[in-house]
Structures are given as C-alpha cells and as structure tokens.
Amino acid sequence: MKLTRTLKRSVLAAAIAIAPWAMAQDIKLGFNGDLSASPSAQSGKAGVIGIQAAIDDINAAGGVLGRKLTLVIRDDQSQPPKSIQNMSDLIDNEKVVAVFGPTNSGNALAWKHIPNQKKVVSMGMIGSGTAITHPMAPGAENYMFRISMVDREQVAGLVAYAAKSGTKKIGLLGETTGYGQGGLKDLEEIAKLHGLTPLAIEKFGVADTDMTSQLNKMKAAGVDTVLVWAQGTPTGQLVRSMEKINYFPTFLSSWAADNITFFDAAGKSLANKPIFMRTLVNPATPAQKKLFDRTGPQLAAPSAFPFVIHGYDATLLVAAAIRQAGTADGPKVREALENLNAPVVGVKKTYNKPFSATQREALVASDLTFVRWSEDKLVEFSDNITKSLTAGDFKR
Predict the structure, then answer these.
(1) What H or E segment, with its residue span, contains residue 388?
(2) CB 41 within 8 A of CB 35
(3) Are 363 and 381 in contact (CB under 8 A)?
(4) pLDDT, mean of each 10-residue run, the chain (396 residues)
(5) 126/171 same-domain check
C-alpha cells in the first residue's frame, strides 16, 4: 500500500512538472496575401519564405515563451473580398496572434478595420500603400504596423530627384488599382510641396498592354519626366508602349519595377529605363548573404529577396514583442511593439525602437536607395542628382 501511494505521488508530481510543456499550444501566426494571381504574387511567396525561415530559427532556439511558432497561410488571390474572408478566418477560426501581409495594398485598405476591431496585430511586409498604417480615426488604437517600403517615402525620394533635376515638365501615370491610385495621390501631393504642377495626369488598367494613347498625351504636353505608380507587368507594358512611339522621357517608377514580372514584360533591352527605389540592391552583409544562400533557390528571381528579408525581420519584431509582453494577447503585443525596450538585430538592420504610439513604419527614406536594371541584374543607380540630395530635399 505504501509503495502504491508513493508511486501515485511520484506520477502526480511528474505530471505537474511537465504539464506546462505538454499543454502549451503553439503560437499561431498568419499570412494573408496574394500567392498566385497578380504580378506581385512572387513577392508574396518570397515574404512567406522569409517568415518561415525566421520561425524555423526562433523555434530552433527554443521558441517564444516556451512555445513554438507556427504559420497558417492563406492566398487571397489579389481579391479584396477573398482577403477580407481570409482575415476573419485567420483571426476568428485559426486564432492567430498576428497576421503578416498582404501582398496588395488595396486588400489591406479593404480589411484594416478587422485587426483594429479584433485587437490583433497586423504586420505588413509587402504592400506599401501609405494609408495602410494610418489609424482608423485620430487618436484611435492602431494595430497596423509595417516593415517594408512605404509609398510616401518612395515618392518623397523620386519627386525630390525630379525637382533637383530642374525640370518643371512632369507627368503622372498610375494604374487604376488601390495601389496605383494611392501612389498617384502621394505623387500629386508631394509634387505640390515642391511647387511642381503636372502637365498631364493619366491612368491605365493593370491588365492593359497598350498605353500609347496616354503617352501621346504626355508627349504632346511636353512632359520630359514621368513618375509612374503601377505593378511590375503594366510598368513593363508602359515601357514597350514608349518604344512604339519613340518617346523616352526620364522615367521614375515605384519599386514594383524591381519585380521579375516587370523585367519579363519589358524585355532586357528596355528594362533599364525606369529609375526606382528599394530597401536593398543585393545581399551585402554576412547575415544577408547567409539568408540569401539559404532561401535563394526557392525564389522566382533574385530580385524578390528583399521580401524575404522583410518577412524575416517582421517575424523577429513580432516575436520580440511577444517575449517582452510575456503573452500573445493582442493589446499587450501592440503595446510592446510601440515600446520595444531592447534592440532587435535583423537582417536588414538593427531596429532600435522602430515603432511608437504614432510611428508605424520600421523603414523610412534613409533606409532606401536608388536602383535600376543593368542587363539582367539590379544595380545601385547614382548620378550627380542622387549625390546632391540632402535630408532637406525630401518633403512629405
């Protein structure tokens, strides 16, 4: 009888000791973005590769709060209704504690009310629309964060370049998606800050293959510098349309021109026309080279690698916030992100208090560089104008 009681006590003690580990559930993270439909889908795939690589490294080091991270993936096929449905599914059914994505800015604008209402962090790492991270109302709690390019910051750089060149003859072009029209709005506003009035403003569809009508209007108006906001494929078609009418003004573009879909649509001989901005040209630091060696074979093209870094670093920031909060509870994670008390060493850079109650962008203009295609590779672009730009030239 004594042996039986002792055995029972031992079994009970062992059960109590292992219970927290045995019962601890994985911390679920979600990704909601286009992986198959739009010209930007390869960016979404690269972002997922980066998120998963970070999760693997974090889990190998013991996880977060003694729990493993797992990733639940949803393809929104570039469709706002589908993206809204995915967001609700990830939060309500899968019980994720943070959602990464989306690939397309318009989809984030369609569902940003959901994470704010349900108090679950959204960490953008691809879509660059300026308004994505704005609060729903002045002073409202804001669950939208981002580590990626930001349209407004790119526009600040591109318009500064145009203004510094001395031109007064600019034209604006944008695709008719939420991404294109958001960028066009930024272009108009920042051009005005520089005292530049566009001689022409034109739009085109994301699936259009002939933009000669819009370009002929630009040409007739005397435009010598065009600023374009569109995804990769239509930007490539725009360059081809320029060739048709032999009209090649200075071409300043959104960073979607870094996409292999742009290169494929434009072709090697025309791909070097646009000048744009990027968070990274090519892997430079040991950490970047190591991650590229690890993930590069999975990418549609090397040009997608910055999205791997965005996904990787975004995951590190969310994990750091959960550790600091001591919980995966949404409001606590948001508060921790706003007040990270220790630097987070990422692959792009070390993040020292990247967010605050009002600042939601981990990357700003000073983190960007001018880029263009040369042959089939992306290279840093530098001329007398880029060299002369100062902080005072960037207006927002």
Answers:
(1) helix 384-388
(2) yes
(3) no
(4) 45 42 77 91 95 98 98 96 98 98 93 98 94 94 96 94 97 93 94 98 97 98 98 96 98 92 95 95 95 96 92 98 98 98 98 97 89 93 94 88
(5) no
Classify 354 as helix, strand or coil.
coil
Q: Are residues 374 and 240 both part of a single domain?
A: yes
Closest CA to 208 of 186, 226, 225, 228: 228
Please state the pTM of the whole predicted model: 0.82
User: Do 233 and 376 have their domain in common?
Assistant: yes
Q: Judge if 310 and 263 occupy the same domain.
A: no
Q: Tell me which residue of 202, 206, 278, 268 sits closest to 235, measured CA to CA.
A: 206
Helix (H, G, I), strand (E, B) or coil at 176: coil
Lookup result for tokens 């040991």: 286
Q: How far is CA 248 from the centre of its chain?
A: 29
**Residue 13 forms part of a structural domain:** no
Contacts of 333 (CB under 8 A, 6+ apart): 97, 98, 121, 318, 321, 322, 325, 327
Contact 324, 107 (CB under 8 A): no
One domain, residues 263 and 124:
no
Cα–Cα distance for residue pair 228/184, rounded to 1 Å: 8
Which two three-digit tokens encode residue 197? 């009035």
Diameter of the chain by CA atoms?
Answer: 102
CB atoms under 10 Å from CB of 352, counted, come to 9
Of the candidates 152, 45, 162, the residue with the CA atom closest to the CA atom of residue 101: 45
Give me the amino acid identity at 310: H
